Here is the input.
Amino acid sequence: MKFVVITGLSGAGKSQAVKAMEDAGYYCVDNMPPALIPKFAEIYHKASGEKAALVCDIREGALFGELAGALDTLTEMGCDYEILFLEAAEEVLIKRYKETRRLHPLSEQGRLIEGIQKEKWMLKDLRQKATHIIDTSQMTAAQLKTAIAEIYGKGQEFGGMMIHLISFGFKKGIPLDADMVFDVRFLPNPFYIPELRSHTGLETCVRDYVMGYPQSTEFLTKLKDMIAYLIPHYIKEGKPQLVIGIGCTGGQHRSVSIAEELSKALRSENQSVIVTHREVS
Here is the structure.
């Protein structure tokens, strides 16, 4: 039986994760008290259930403290489980809560930022035990669904790490969650070609222009080889996700083209890749 416990920071996208898990064929239960998890696993297994996912987070209040014990019980039962942990940057969580005008579960009597920071502290040990960690700071709901499908999709086995490529424009700042940043402003700029200026690197005309230069193909080859070299070492250190920023001046042409080409190259080697074009979207 495939058993997944979904948890993480409030506002990081657990509700969207449940929908994605259901689409992947999992039987899902939201907001289950930790003490009931072992019994649920036993019943579901006896019913010949194959895949189940449960959401358990600080909405449980004081009961959430029982989660560690419940997970230990699962281990004693011989039930293999995974923990999917969702998180996002503090400024992103604040923005999401302000947009929805909802109260954070831990900030009813205080400031929003204090609730977020308290929750991060409460979940730090659980995060260290997570099988997969997804940072949703730069993700849309559709991209989160894609990320989960890469890990838990039907017929797929995920044994590596999630690679998140983000194209961006330096004039709007570097992505805060990037582990590595590469500057492609040395490549020929389609912006100065009148018939290409209004297009983006998502379009063939721009991508053909950018990749038509030998320095572009050489850079792409070296970058792909370096990432392929680093991945097993990061996995060995327990890093579940690698966020790579690729920047040009405006984030419309060169960075988008390189990110798209890099994603194709990595996927051809069976790497799990998500692409976000910050300035285009």
Observations:
- The beta strands are 2-8, 27-29, 51-55, 81-87, 132-135, 162-169, 180-183, 241-248, 272-277.
- DSSP finds nine helices and nine strands in the chain.
- The chain has two domains: 2-152, 162-277.
